[in-house]
Amino acid sequence: MNPPGWQIWFAAARPRTLAAAVAPVLVGSALARHDGAFDAVAATLCLGFALLVQIGTNFANDYYDFMHGADTATRVGPRRAVAAGLVAPATMRRAMWGVLAGAFLVGLGLVAWGGPWLLVIGLASILCAIAYTGGPWPLAYHGLGDVFVFVFFGLVAVGATYFVQAGRLSADAVLAAAAVGALATNILLVNNYRDAETDAAAGKRTLVVRFGRAAARAQFAAALALALAMPLAFVARGYRPWCLLPLALVPVAWAHARRLRESQTPGERIALLGDTGKLLAAYAILFSAGLVL
Length: 293
Hints:
The chain is mainly α. The chain has helices at residues 5-12, 19-34, 40-68, 89-108, 111-114, 117-131, 145-166, 171-194, 196-201, 207-211, 213-236, 250-262, 266-292. Helix 3 runs parallel beside helix 6 (117-131), helix 4 packs antiparallel against helix 6 and helix 12 runs antiparallel to helix 13 (266-292).
């Protein structure tokens, strides 16, 4: 028996990944608050845009991975709506375009704060959401998915959130964006780590497929180290010690690196995927609190 329609679409939105949309807006807004430039309306629009782009990307991934043959009966991990026959491919494609169109309309509201150039960033974000797994040269199939996540859910998301409120881009915003982007990339990495065999069979050349699981574990640890070193950099740049709050997550990060190294089953990696998203959320909350305090 199939689940109710709302449960199908909720699962297709992949709630475990939505921390990657919320975290950069939270950190960028907290930094704007620290600099006396917080604007609740602009921050809310940024959050709406980020969430819609993330959900649109997930719908596109569901549709295009099925069309490319990456989601099959041999795939491990959470069930995908199109591959499982719960949603028709054409319906998922329409949903993808509908959500991304909604993101564009929300993004239009930010032009009043950031100027017309924000249209370029917004359109680039939307086009890359599709190009991630779709189009003639899908990014995820050529090992560029990690770059996409780092740039758009780190540098662009934090930087744009700060810019529309503060009216400028600062070095501190870029540093904070790098930390958030590194942790967001780890969510994708754990997903690709779990799917390495089926991705390889489908010709999806993620970084895990290209360079192996040992390199993936090193990338995962490096991203954690970068994110946890950033609060120290902020204190060195004159911020108060409250910015060190994210260092409370060091034991959790250490445990995550160990779990990835020792994981053997899809179930273990699915659990780590969810916990990696929770780590990003906790980091964003603690770092934001430190900036505000």
